[in-house]
Design brief:
InterPro entries: Cell_Envelope_Struct_Comp (IPR051465), FN3_dom (IPR003961), FN3_sf (IPR036116), SLH_dom (IPR001119). The protein is α/β, with parallel strands linked by helices and 547 residues long. The protein is 22% helix and 17% strand. Strands 2-7-10-6-5-4 form a 6-stranded mixed beta sheet, covered by helices on one side. Strand 8 and strand 9 form a beta hairpin.
């Protein structure tokens, strides 16, 4: 890939199955002994309050304070009962299993003499290349992945009595999208079910540091697999873990963890929107729609990346934040088809991917507009009232709630309706002196109620009550719509608007006229339901035609 050095570190798991309570280490060896790794001199050890040890065999990790920080980084990965069975972390200075292997986890599982399953405690996580990977940020992602092996193996064994050799005997097989692909277990590391599950853990439960985005300033330069936003998972052909329905809930329930308190963002949509040339050369312009988060919509981070069909590490094009959703990709020597995608990360660490955009760099397609993206967490690109909601929310007449949900089927109170009308028509002149309502003087929306009443749009009862907290019915909404500015300019159909349940209703004629103007509709069964509480989406659709 273009003028960039890339460095890939994989991580592996080797399983030891024991019978009759055997132990893999002899009495003279340290607790982390594994026969396929050389025993090297210990440089430093940090012993945590819970007895776990961070053992350094690397001079670059000789500071006990640094080892202590590594322990707390390890502990920042979400954990349950399986935590008690981990012995700690051992840092090797080099790569005893080859430069492509950055970490290793070796569980020991077995049956005792009574045939009961057990997990051997005090198992180690090995981190390799400590003389090169000298900072927490360098090893956090690998360590989260290796802890993912510990986590997933423990619960497969203790709950189901199976290892990943028999993954198809677990509910995970039915939940994890892509796991039935014929390439699974084809000998490739990326298609190994145990590696897929460990990557899933790192994405869903890894520490904040492990899921941190690297802020790339350019597509040119050094990059490596330690950058989470280039490979949230090794297998880029599979859906990301956060985009697999039910996957996080499955692991939480299996491990006895509390339910998630928020949701992954809705993914962006990506398009090739232009091209040009500057001092760096010819470039393509990519733009994307916003990802939509349910908690912190203003804190979304994006990384535009590209990779080949079989790559396990994407190359960066640009990192952006918030409303900056455009980037340039400079053309180089690449030919043929490449996959472009945007990874979006929310403040809680969830990462989602846009649909992959395949671009043939040897035969560039024409630019297009950005596809419609998610407006809010509950208003997707295919939602029937998308354009109307977009219109009223762009003018901040209606706004989403604190969780970035529009709540289309939520109801509206009479006081809220007054607020919405003032926001929609702030320049409308008063036409009358508002009545003095007996139940609004201390209401938080009293000013809005008086404002709307002075325009003749909202009315109270003959007894002088407004009932500000009463829900607006569809018939009442029809009456209000008929009084609003611009309603007389709408074309009127010659027929329609008559319903079996409005024949004797006080708002029959008003409903008929509003329906003929296209402001309101009946249901598929031919009823209007005039006394049902109206909804935010019904009001938005009607109001948008008057704006």
């Amino acid at each position: 890939m273009k003028n960039s050095a890339k460095f890939w570190l994989g991580a592996v798991m080797l399983l030891v199955l024991l019978l009759g309570g055997a132990n893999g280490a002899g009495a003279a060896e340290p607790w982390w002994y594994y026969e396929q790794l050389p025993l090297e001199p210990v440089v430093a050890i940090y012993t945590a309050p819970d007895g776990k040890e961070i053992v350094s065999l690397s001079s670059a990790w000789s500071d006990p304070g640094k080892l202590q920080a590594l322990y707390y980084e390890l502990k920042n990965n979400v954990h349950g009962k399986e935590w008690d069975y981990l012995g700690g972390v051992v840092i090797y200075p080099d790569y005893p299993l080859g430069r492509g292997v950055g970490g290793l986890y070796v569980p020991e599982l077995g049956w005792d003499s009574r045939g009961q399953r057990y997990v051997t405690p005090k198992r180690p996580i090995f981190l390799f290349g400590g003389d090169e990977q000298t900072e927490l940020a360098d090893v956090a992602k690998t360590m989260a992945h290796e802890y993912g092996h510990h986590f997933t193996v423990y619960y497969f064994w203790t709950k189901y009595g199976v290892t990943f050799d028999n993954y198809w005997r677990t509910p995970w097989y039915d939940i994890r999208q892509g796991i039935r692909d014929p390439r699974v277990n084809n000998g490739s590391h990326a298609w190994d079910p145990a590696e897929i599950a460990a990557d899933d853990y790192a994405q869903l439960f890894g520490s904040p540091q492990a899921r941190q985005f690297t802020k790339f300033t350019s597509q040119f330069g050094y990059f490596s697999s330690s950058s989470y936003n280039l490979s949230p998972q090794e297998n880029l052909a599979l859906p990301l873990a956060a985009q697999v329905p039910g996957l996080e809930a499955y692991w939480r329930q299996l491990a006895g963890l509390p339910a998630a308190t928020n949701q992954p963002p809705k993914p962006p949509q990506l398009a090739l929107t232009g091209s040009g040339q500057d001092e760096r050369g010819h470039y393509l312009t990519f733009s994307w729609s916003q990802a939509v988060d349910d908690r912190y919509p203003a804190s979304l981070e994006y990384t535009l990346v590209y990779h080949g069909p079989n790559d396990t590490l994407a190359a960066p094009v640009a990192y952006t934040f918030g409303d900056n959703r455009e980037a340039r990709f400079y053309l180089g020597r690449e030919t043929g088809s490449y996959y472009f995608r945007v990874f979006a990360r929310d403040a809680s660490g969830y990462v989602v991917s846009s649909p992959i955009l395949v671009i043939n760099l040897s035969n560039l397609p024409a630019p297009t507009a950005v596809p419609r993206g998610w407006l809010f967490w509950d208003i997707g690109p295919d939602y029937w009232g998308y354009l109307q909601v977009e219109k009223v929310t762009a003018r901040k007449i209606l706004v989403p709630n604190a969780y970035n949900n529009f709540v289309p089927w939520g109801n509206i109170t009479r006081a809220q309706l007054a607020v919405f009308l003032q926001r929609a028509f702030p320049q409308a002149p008063a036409t009358q002196t508002p009545p003095v309502f007996k139940d609004t003087s201390n209401h938080s929306y009293a000013w809005y109620i008086n404002w709307a009443a002075s325009r003749g749009w909202l009315k109270g009862t003959p007894q002088g009550y407004f009932y500000p907290d009463k829900l607006v019915t569809r018939a009442e909404l029809a009456a209000v719509l008929a009084r609003l500015p611009g309603v007389d300019q709408l074309p009127v159909a010659q027929s329609g608007g008559l319903f079996p349940d409005t024949t004797n209703h006080w708002a029959r004629d008003i409903i008929r006229d509003d329906v003929r103007r296209g402001l309101m509709y009946g249901n598929q069964q031919g009823y209007f339901n005039p006394d049902r509480a109206t909804t935010r989406i019904e009001f938005s659709v009607a109001l948008s035609k008057l704006l």
